[in-house]
Design goal:
- There is one protein chain.
- This protein is α/β, with parallel strands linked by helices.
- The chain is about 40% helix and about 15% strand.
- It is globular.
- It starts with a helix and ends with a helix.
Length: about 450
């Protein structure tokens, strides 16, 4: 592809993306294809001769688009926001164009130094404790997801524990499934994870956590890490981080705080109560690719002391040795993550923060919280529905039909089959619940109002 062809096709593709974002609201949110339908439309064998770009782009419309569930639709209320925005998409494009492999400082100094600086910016925006900044013993790094962050936290915690064996880890019964995966991958084994009971707000019970730790110590185990969740996936619950942190401090345990989606709320000063107790954490993560208008993948992972993380993950073959690394004056982010290679993710986060500014980011977060509050008020005022997470809501509303699980399932299926909105479910206190996650970049009052109309109509 020549430079001139790239310019022409690039303009066509950017125009296509801009057109897609303009019309995505009118597309069925949940893909309507059946299993195997997309693949059945693809040629059995790869092309022998080159194909024109126009034909490729036409196939995107005809084959790929019908198989897309439109996460960028303002009518997407499922799972969690997976937000893209104009500046983020352009940052991703620039990253692809530069083609940087940022494993070492020396392989592209700007990739490392921009990432360090932007994560210090983010720590300031979220008012995180100073120990997570890069000018001390800690610092931040961009991981692909919160799943990688909790795994890195666990291997760092294991490293700090030294030669101790029979290790145990702790999280609430509502914690993300990535905690289970982390204990498996790290070699502790599924049986090493203690799932702690939750209270009536679906948050970890600190008293149960304390008892579980003491039982394990008495039985000869070594408690190594606890995961406190700020905004659980199921209900948005916030674990009692101050109490959990105190128990961890007493027993020399690593505390990891997972604020994958909810952490973004702390952009607004009045919502920073969610971070009470984070000053006791050894590590913390939040996902700008969920609620901060930055496209996937971009998880901000912070450690208070980077030494155990680097000691656990650093492997230095001869072919990676270089003068800058050996000087000790630079960060090599390959030592802060599981894989060796890494993309220039900091560009898109940098673009987003500069485009919106602190006040712009706060405006959108406050708006989403207000829209969720309004939706919850409508639900609470209708005697056909029951709110299940009234005590822990930010931008997530969980509800059910008072006639039980079957009626709730019909609600879910009817809304999703309409193509006009997409919601997902969870189980709280053994009850099926509909989750309404408000946070997509382009969601406004009119979209939340339409969802409410759909819900009322489906309720019968």
């Amino acid at each position: 592809m020549t430079s001139e062809q790239f310019r022409r096709y690039g303009r066509e593709l950017v125009d296509w993306i801009a057109g897609y974002l303009a019309r995505v609201e009118k597309l069925p949110v949940l893909s309507q294809v059946r299993p195997g339908e997309v693949r059945a439309r693809l040629p059995e064998h790869p092309p022998v001769a080159p194909e024109p770009f126009d034909r490729v782009l036409a196939d995107v419309d005809e084959i790929i688009l019908p198989g897309i569930t439109h996460w960028q639709s303002p009518n997407f209320f499922a799972y969690y926001p997976a937000n893209g925005s104009g500046p983020s998409i352009l940052g991703e494009l620039l990253s692809a164009g530069l083609g940087v492999q940022g494993m070492l400082w020396t392989t592209s100094p700007a990739a490392t130094e921009l990432e360090t600086h932007v994560l210090d910016w983010l720590a300031e925006l979220l008012d995180l404790p100073p120990k997570f900044r890069s000018d001390g013993a800690g610092g931040g790094v961009i991981q692909d997801s919160a799943s990688s962050a909790v795994l890195c936290a666990l291997v760092a915690a294991r490293e700090r524990a030294g030669t101790a064996d029979r290790l145990t880890a702790y999280a609430s019964a509502e914690a993300h499934s990535s905690v289970v995966k982390a204990v498996r991958i790290a070699g502790l084994g599924r049986a090493a994870l203690r799932e702690i009971a939750v209270d009536d707000r679906h948050a970890m019970r600190a008293d149960e956590f304390a008892r579980a730790v003491q039982r394990d110590i008495d039985a000869g185990f070594t408690p190594v890490m606890a995961v406190a969740t700020v905004g659980t996936t199921g209900s948005g619950a916030i674990d009692p981080v101050p109490a959990i942190g105190e128990i961890c401090r007493r027993h020399g345990m690593w505390l990891h705080v997972d604020a994958a989606m909810a952490g973004t709320a702390a952009l607004a000063p009045e919502l920073r109560y969610i971070h009470n107790g984070v000053d006791q954490a050894d590590s913390y993560c939040t996902n700008p690719h969920k609620w901060m208008f930055t496209n996937f993948d971009c998880d901000a992972f912070y450690v208070a002391d980077r030494r155990p993380l680097i000691q656990a993950l650093s492997v230095l073959p001869e072919y990676l040795r270089n003068e800058a690394s050996e000087s000790g004056e630079v960060i090599d982010y390959r030592d802060w993550q599981i894989p060796l290679g890494r993309r220039f993710r900091a560009l898109k986060l940098w673009f987003v923060i500069r485009h919106y500014g602190a006040e712009g980011l706060r405006h959108h977060v406050r708006r989403h919280v207000e829209l969720a509050r309004q939706f919850a008020e409508w639900v609470a005022a209708d005697d056909r529905f029951e709110l299940l997470n009234a005590g822990s809501r930010l931008n997530l509303v969980c509800l059910r039909h008072r006639n039980g699980d079957e009626a709730t399932r019909r609600l879910l299926d009817t809304i999703n089959a309409s193509g006009r909105a997409y919601v997902t479910h969870t189980s709280l206190d053994g009850k099926l619940a509909v989750r309404v996650s408000v946070g997509q970049t382009r969601t406004e009052y009119v979209h939340v109002e339409r969802l409410w109309e759909l819900l009322r109509s489906a309720a019968g």
